[in-house]
Amino acid sequence: MEQANSILDSIPASRETAKIKGVMVVEIPVADMRQAVEFYVGQLGFYIDLEKNPPSKWGTDTEMFVKPAAGIHLMLQQTDGKERLGFSLKGEPRPFLVLEIEEPAQVVWSRLRENGVKVGELEDRGGCGIGFPVWDVDGNVLRLHYQPR
Q1: Does 4 have pLDDT greater than 70?
Q2: Is 7 a member of any domain?
């Protein structure tokens, strides 16, 4: 452990020394743009950024920018194959992205499930809130998380 601490001691770790300003966009691979937009906008509640996606280009673009009420864009990126984002831990798929939701997790979980969306079990993390995994139409795993105020 002593060696790890000495490595960390030599790394600048403050906001003032950071070289990255922020996260601009998260690119998500999708096989069918229409289905992906219907999922992210219709099921999850993102909105289409009309500045980046003028309606005149709909149906011809291989990318679509969707945005939450606050935060960064997701760029749905048409791919040639079945690429997915994510990883596994102890054989279980883990989300590549955690999204904060406004409604209680149980309400969103029930609605998505009733709409035929693949969702995992609700997980209460005590004071950290309640969340659950959700799979998009391409098999990308996200986590929706509700933090009571």
Answers
A1: no
A2: no
Report yes or no on 19 lying in a domain.
no
Residue 48 confidence (pLDDT): 93
Q: Sorting pLDDT into bands at 50, 70 and 90, what band is 82?
A: confident
Residue 77: give the domain boundaries.
Answer: 25-146
Asked whether the CA dihedral 137, 142, 40, 79 is positive or negative, the reply is negative
List CB contacts of 74: < 8 A, sequence separation 6 or more. 25, 26, 27, 28, 40, 46, 65, 66, 67
Phi/psi region, residue 78 (left: phi>0; alpha: psi -120 to 50; beta: rest), is beta
CATH of the domain at 57: 3.10.180.10
Least confident of 14-23, 26-35, 100-109: 14-23
Using the Cα atoms of residue 43, residue 49, residue 52 and residue 55 in order, give the sign of their dihedral.
positive
Q: Residue 88 corresponds to which tokens in the numbers above?
A: 């596994």
What tokens appear for 130 in the block? 């309640």
At residue 2, the pLDDT reads 53
Please tell me the total count of domains within the chain.
1
